[in-house]
Amino acid sequence: MVDITPKPVIYREATATGRILLKKNTIKRIRHGKIEKGDPLATARIAAVLAAKQTSGLIPLCHPLPITAVEVDEEVGEDFVAFRVKVKATARTGVEMEALTAVSLALLTVWDMTKQYEKNEEGQYPTTRIESIQVVEKIKEVGKE
């Protein structure tokens, strides 16, 4: 683990995004509340918050952080669901890993809840894909603690 003791405690924020490509029929089911396991968007939002809070327990050598906020937004397109997660903390190190982990778990949750509609006749997922997971913004502000 990297020693961050000498670093100052400052306001930190990171925003990550990603999306999952789904069949149009699966998107229609999501929009109309017809997913057998329940609401994948609500479940994914909760999963994202939990993932951000548990990141240091999932990623070796990642510092535990005092997260002060996790904001989760989703967009449902014609053939995709996208998430944007912003994580905030006042800490000695950044929250990029927390934001990336949160987005990843939100997307995996949607996959899990919709997989029965995504399989082809052979039980494969030829069109389902998670893509474009990235940090789109990182902020460090001294004096905003």
Detail the topology: elements first, then pairings.
Blueprint: E1 10-21, H1 24-31, H2 40-58, E2 67-76, E3 80-91, H3 96-118, E4 129-141
Antiparallel strand pairs: 1-3, 1-4, 2-3
The secondary structure category is: alpha+beta
CATH topology: Alpha-Beta Plaits
Q: Any low-confidence stretches, pLDDT <50, length ≥5?
A: none
- How are the strands ordered across the major sheet? 2-3-1-4
Helix content: 25-40%
Largest sheet: 4 strands, antiparallel
Using DSSP, what is the number of strands?
Answer: 4
The percentage of residues in β strands lies in 25-35%
Question: Helix and strand string, N-terminal first?
Answer: EHHEEHE
Q: How many H/I helical runs?
A: 3
Computed Rg:
17 Å
What is the mean pLDDT? 96
CATH fourth-tier homologous superfamily: Molybdopterin cofactor biosynthesis C (MoaC) domain
Overall 3D geometry? elongated
Structurally, the number of domains stands at 1
Distance between the termini: 25 Å
> Which architecture per CATH?
2-Layer Sandwich
CATH class bucket = Alpha Beta
What would you note in describing this structure?
There is one protein chain. With 145 residues, this protein is an alpha+beta fold. A four-stranded antiparallel sheet has the order 2-3-1-4, with helices on one face. The longest helix has 23 residues, at 96-118. It starts with 9 loop residues before the first strand and ends with a strand. It is elongated and about 55 Å long. It has helices spanning 24-31, 40-58, 96-118, and strands at 10-21, 67-76, 80-91, 129-141. The mean pLDDT is 96. Helix 2 packs across helix 3. It has one domain: Alpha-Beta Plaits, CATH 3.30.70.640.
